[in-house]
């Protein structure tokens, strides 16, 4: 595995927990607010590099569930992969580690851009490596209504990473790069594409970080007002 892709990741022992009979995955509650597949993947951890971060992907099953939620996998795809992962725990653990490594690479690249900095050379090299693998397994396939991008080896436990890597490459080389933002909410590091009319969006969501920020400002003004009395 490319060393740059594991730098900054939080791959912990025992995280590749797999099973069809587990309780509801926390990945099913993840909000897809990024505006791009790769940003949504980056947002599966809130608090990158922090021991108190909120993790949505705690094992391979979570990864498959999240990819189904994000539209990468069908229900059938997810079921097949989870079943295969249960019979190949070592391979599933390795695939999960690659997913976390790719996520952290994507986060560092787009977080840097959101803050007006340049991505690191090692991270770009890691993304290029993931992009090459995705391209090597991609193909255009006909459908009843036209054509779609499809993948050549869906038996691979990590094939869901290929569209994520290509999404990151596409966003990085597009004009939308200038619209990448980091949430201004206290303690939140989620990334998103700012598609607002005036390009002044500050928060990942108004009902969470936006409202909390407004509440903090209100309490601060109230406290200051009481202090002047």
What this model shows, in words?
This protein is mainly alpha-helical and 229 residues long. The protein has one domain (3-228): Jann2411-like fold (Orthogonal Bundle), CATH 1.10.3300. A hairpin with an 8-residue loop joins β5 (180-182) and β6 (191-193). The chain contains eight helices and six strands. The model is unreliable at 1-21 and 218-225 (pLDDT under 50). The protein is globular. The protein has a two-stranded antiparallel ribbon. A two-stranded antiparallel sheet has the order 3-4.
End-to-end span in angstroms?
A: 62 Å
CATH class: Mainly Alpha
Sequence of secondary-structure elements: HHEEHHHHEEHEEH
Shape category:
globular
CATH superfamily: Jann2411-like domain
Concise overview:
The protein contains eight helices and six strands; from the N terminus they run ααββααααββαββα.
Task: Describe how the helices and strands are arranged.
Layout: H1 3-6, H2 37-42, E1 45-46, E2 54-55, H3 60-69, H4 75-87, H5 89-114, H6 121-136, E3 138-143, E4 146-151, H7 161-172, E5 180-182, E6 191-193, H8 206-228
Antiparallel strand pairs: 1-2, 3-4, 5-6
Question: Notable features of this structure?
Answer:
mainly alpha, two-stranded antiparallel sheet, Jann2411-like fold, 6 strands, 229 residues, 8 helices
């Amino acid at each position: 595995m490319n060393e740059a892709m594991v730098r900054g990741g939080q791959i912990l022992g025992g995280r590749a927990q797999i099973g069809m009979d587990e309780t509801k995955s926390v990945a099913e509650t993840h909000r897809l607010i990024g505006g791009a597949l790769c940003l949504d993947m980056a947002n599966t951890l809130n608090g990158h590099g922090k021991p108190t971060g909120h993790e949505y992907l705690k094992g391979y099953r979570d990864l498959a569930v999240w990819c189904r939620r994000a539209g990468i996998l069908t229900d059938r795809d997810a079921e097949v992969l989870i079943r295969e992962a249960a019979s190949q725990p070592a391979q599933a653990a390795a695939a999960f580690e690659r997913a976390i490594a790719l996520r952290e690479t994507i986060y560092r690249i787009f977080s840097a851009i959101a803050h007006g900095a340049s991505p690191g050379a090692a991270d770009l090299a890691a993304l290029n490596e993931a992009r090459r693998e995705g391209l090597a397994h991609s193909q255009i396939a006909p459908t009843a209504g036209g054509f779609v991008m499809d993948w050549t080896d869906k038996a691979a436990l990590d094939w869901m990473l290929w569209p994520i890597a290509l999404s990151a490459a596409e966003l990085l080389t597009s004009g939308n790069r200038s619209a990448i933002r980091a949430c201004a909410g206290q303690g939140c590091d989620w990334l998103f594409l700012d598609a607002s009319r005036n390009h002044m969006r500050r928060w990942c969501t108004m009902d969470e970080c936006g409202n909390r920020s407004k509440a903090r400002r209100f309490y601060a003004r109230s406290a200051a007002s009481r202090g002047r009395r």
